[in-house]
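Hey, quick one: can you model this chain's 3D structure?
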Amino acid sequence: MPHARHRWAACGALGEDESVLWPTAAKKALKVGPDREVVSVYPYRSACPASLWRTLITRAEQELTFAGYTNYFLWLEQARFGSALRRKAVQGCRVRFLVGDPDSAMTRLREADEQVPLTLSTRIRVTLAELEKIKGQGGVEARFSSGHAYLSVFRFDQEMIVTPLLTHRVGHDAPTLHLRRHQNDGLFDRFAAHVEELWSQATPVWGGDDHGQA
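Sure thing. Here's the predicted structure for all 214 residues.
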């Protein structure tokens, strides 16, 4: 039986749950308390396998929500990410992006805090340029929000990746949680409600559209 960290790495690479590859080990580690929605914990977002992100995106059928302040890393780490989003939207999956306003005071404040050459506003504009290419697809929405400046939430149907940002750190240095919904008003539901509130107060990226859809 491989050590836990090796099992988790293999699961991430193969895009399978531990319960499928090593059911005995999974049963021994079965959670029954309020933390059972926590699938995995990573000290850094960069330690979360790109294959896990791809699996979650591929499996989602109803909802994909990307509430990162820039969402820039997704276009770098996920091959043909725009094509995957377009395909999902055509299949009836709702695709939403919450991003920071590149010209806002909050963005300037965070840029001063991060002090990196590739600024937040530049990364946001890269995302906006990529979204512009697929905004004509039904179900693709984008809005500006400042309320998630230090907390990123990415939802894939009933699974979620959450990254709380630390002071003076960029997104790939953020601690990361992989959650799976198992209960009412649990961790998953609370983060989901947070995103919905932000979404309801956010401003559509594409003007003249009350719903943020092209």
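One thing worth noting: The first strand starts at residue 38 and ends at 42.
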